[in-house]
Amino acid sequence: MATPKLQSGDRLVLATHNPGKVAEMRVLMDPYGVEAISAGDLGIPAAEETGTTFEENACIKARATADASGLPALSDDSGFCLAALDGSPGVYSARWAKNGEFSFAMDRVLREMEGKTDLTAWFVCVLAIAWPNGQEFTFRGEVWGDMVSPPRGKSGFGYDPIFQPSGHTMTFAEMSPAAKDAMSHRAYAFRAFANNYLRG
Ligand code: IMP
User: Fold this and answer.
1) Which of 11, 14, 125, 145 could anchor a disulfide with 78, C-beta 3.0 to 4.6 Å?
2) Which residues of 79-94 are buried (b: 16+ CB within 10 A; e: fewer)?
């Protein structure tokens, strides 16, 4: 089956209800002229994330949204991982927050990291594109660095205030959105997606 490509004027549904992700994905999509509509705007409910890997969950969300909308759907499954916690919170990053309140998640991370000396941390983003014709593809991006405490900065979302990428002195939440977009896990995954499925 020929690989479909999106071009300027095409419509794509962002299979996420996370406003932080929608904002970052729209900025990344902007240069291609593709109209990115969010699943929330179409009234498509969030799919249950029953997978145990980023890839599985990304595909579940993209497929559910493509089937519900009849349009190609791009999902993002991502998370914050700590070496000292064997990769947790990982795929459960969103669930460590209560009612979407990330101060709870960061407090839990800081509690569980008490006394640990290895602060190695990384973000993972897996983007999945699901086409109405049944095809699905995934793209993975990672960015490595350290967990910092106390949290610093007010930009971005989620765990950004406690993540400092290697070779930098600012957390993701202290950087401008453009600086984060230039090096983030989401940007790396997006570049791979764009090279394959977007016409510049
Ligand atoms: P999910 O992909 O919907 O399961 O949620 C992923 C969760 O990982 C988000 O709700 C955030 O807590 C966290 N996360 C993913 N990407 C980022 C990021 O770029 N910055 C901060 N936190 C992130």
Assistant:
1) 125
2) bbbbebbeebbbbebb
Q: Is 94 in the pocket of ligand 1 (CB under 6 A)?
A: yes
d(Cα 19, Cα 120) in Å, to the nearest integer?
Answer: 27
Beta bridge partners of 127: 76, 139
Ligand 1 and 93: CB distance under 6 A: yes
Tell me the pLDDT tens digit for each residue of 65-106.
999 999 999 999 999 999 999 999 999 999 998 877 888 898
> 2 CA to middle of ligand 1, Å?
33
Give the per-residue pLDDT at 99.
77
Band of the pLDDT at 24, cuts 50, 70, 90? confident
Helix, strand, coil percent content, the chain, rounded in steps of 5: 35, 25, 40
Closest-CA residue to 87 (of 62, 115, 112, 57): 112
Evaluate if residue 124 carries a pLDDT over 80: yes
The reply to whether ligand 1 has any atom less than 6 angstroms from the CB of 158 is yes
**Tally of residues, the chain:** 200
Q: How confident is the model at residue 50 (pLDDT cuts 50, 70, 90)?
A: very high
Residue with structure tokens 């600012």? 170
